[in-house]
Specification:
With about 375 residues, this protein is an alpha/beta fold. The protein has 14 helices and 13 strands. The relative contact order is 0.13.
Length: about 375
Amino acid sequence: MRLALVNLTSGGLSGGCRKYLLRMVPLLSQDSRISRLHLILHEKQLPYIQQLLKCTDVHALTFGGLRPAHKIRKIVSQLSPDVVLMTTQRWVSTGLPTAVMIRNMEAVACPLGGNPWSEVLRNLARRREALIACRKATRVIAISEFVRRFLIQRWRIQPEKIGLVYHGVDYVEPVADGQLPAALCALRGSDFLLSVGSIRPYRGLEDVVQAMGLLSAEFSGLRLVVAGEVDPRMQRHYRQLQTLAERLGVADRLVWPGFLPERVLAWCYRNCRVFVMTTRVEACPNAALEAMHNGCLSVVTSADPLPEFFQHNALYYPPGDARQLAEQLRKALLLGDSQRTAMVEGLRRRAAEFTWQRTAQQTVAELQKTLQQDA
């Protein structure tokens, strides 16, 4: 099977998308069922995967500028693959059997979500593109049962057309204490909560900021690390979070280090007291898988799909309820050693079910079904 893997974006590359390519491309190229793998991506993304290309025999082709769909069609026509995998929920008609992945549930399920109007319009456009892609694709790959259920119940996509393939997680060696960036050096030996992900309204970070205010008297040394980039369009939201922290008197306890390299983030997972996830919606949250893999005691929202991943191995609170979050954080921080150990062991057992090897194997199986459905 000759595969063309198309990563169609306008040039940006999120951390989750970058991780997916770096993990999956080598595994797909090594699968005996794939005779040739061609990677098609925006020219701006090439620097992020140069090392990957040196270590594999994957053939990468790029597009850029205007009319990307036209250029992709031309590239695919020249390559003549058997099947196309679109790793983003956008549609390019190539006349070939095509599988589309649905990975961004912010745009699909809550396009408004407290965003500025410019972002709402972008999300509505992304939502429309995703719906078109789902309807026109030969096969759709959902990356959680929540996504699969949404597509069936809300968009009326035929169940037999949808495959379920979870993302994976793997071990990352944390940096040594002496290699931490300046923004994190003060955390060595201290108690801190950790939240991971881009800083956007749908992440619900106001919950944990308010919870910090409620916990400040009882846990005077506790700090909160919010690891994630601030999109230029989200500067106003970021300032609102900072203003909230100042009003609650906890601004000096919040650390905003921005994007963190994988090994630095691994140190944060290993050393935090509690991992916190306040998101309103996700597809397959990489941060949740990473937290489980690192045995982070976790307090998360009850919003889908987090219960699907954590199951009984986390403490839950209703999204938007900062008092309940504070109470669950208090409970987590005061857990005895035996209770904490039992929960950590449960988290790691659950995380062991998510491997990139399994993701690659199931993805190839879905591509085979794509070919069969088109026959």
